[in-house]
Specification:
117 residues; 5% strand; mainly alpha; binds zinc ion
């Protein structure tokens, strides 16, 4: 009862610091972020950045797994549209790779929540 949270969470914006997407967005919109010391999580608490993970297999907070799955699915759709934007500097191959990457992550977040088979 000392208030220490043993769970590994996902950052609320699970994809903000994803290197691949960050590079895509930076190239497209000029957006780059610095890593913070503490972050808001998908389940609504604030934890040290070290207590979060973007690896589905590492995240033990179920609410965060649900959150991350939805975020990755949504991002896959957003990235899929990037390639069709006027003035976009990303290639079709880059878009395809990122879309696959996030659909895969979404599936892995869904798989691990509850039953392991
Ligand atoms: Zn959480």
């Amino acid at each position: 009862m000392d208030g220490v949270d043993p769970h590994i969470h996902v950052e609320q914006s699970v994809t903000r610091y994803d290197a691949r997407v960050r590079n895509l967005l930076a190239g497209t919109f000029g957006l780059v972020g610095d890593l913070p010391e503490t972050v808001g999580t998908g389940c609504g608490v604030r934890v040290p950045y070290a207590m979060t993970s973007s690896r589905p297999e590492s995240v033990t907070c179920l609410a965060c797994r649900e959150h991350a799955r939805a975020q990755h699915l949504r991002l896959a759709e957003q990235v899929a549209r990037l390639g069709t934007m006027p003035g976009s500097t990303v290639t079709g191959a880059q878009v395809d790779g990122a879309v696959q990457h996030h659909r895969d992550l979404a599936r892995r977040f869904a798989e691990g929540s509850g039953d392991n088979d």
